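Please, structure for the following, as tokens.
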Amino acid sequence: MGCRLVVICLLSLVPGLIAGAFGLVPAGAAGKSFRLSAPQSLVASGFMKHLLPRFSLKTQVRIELVGEDAAADARFVAGGTGRAVFSGLDQTWTFEILDADNAHLARFEAWITGKVGRNTISAYRPGGKALFSAAAARQQAPEAVVLSGDAVEGEKLSVLHCGRCHMVNEATRMSTIGSSPSFAVMRAFSDWQYRFEAFFALNPHPSFTMIDGVTEPFDITRPPPMVPLELTLEELEAILAYVSRIPPADLGAPIQYQ
């Protein structure tokens, strides 16, 4: 009788185990997510596919994009009463929080109005033309420079994947491409965080880089021109943690024009 009871209990757990293994657990169970509504005109522009994955990449917070009439936790509205976040399509777009209990919404608002989010908005240039611009920035406290993550593992991954082109540390000084800026030089750029977080979308990286769960697989008819660089979100987070701890190179004072 005891063995039979154990078997019955185990069988009752199977559906839950299968659901978890294949990602069938309800979205609410994951905790780190929210529903965002946006008008069809904004979705059709392709801007949402550019913007939202970059926030998820940084925070691991999943955003479910829904239509403007669907139930949502927050929304983008043209000329609404929320906080203005960007302009485009002849409109000023605001971000309105509908569920005040969802802490991820405030985090998203802080990101999209901060330096990294503003740079992400400006970087959307289909066909080389900027379609959206960030709203005027509010005065904010300086953003934290040191990012969380396994910096030790991040240095190893940086040497392995980036050291073939960039000087990551002293050990890679003689094995890189001279025309590629070093990590220390890029760390001195004002937009260094954006550059590293979105490197896979900045040339020449898209032709040989794949981020698991973020970028599309390579076209089998157009293979990468070099050995592919494949990373998971966790590995990229570790690299960002390492980069945030690199002392910026001294690039000297800006050139003075008269």
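The CA atoms of residues 28 and 69 lie 20 Å apart. Strands lie at 33-38, 62-67, 74-78, 83-88, 91-97, 132-134, 209-211, 229-231.
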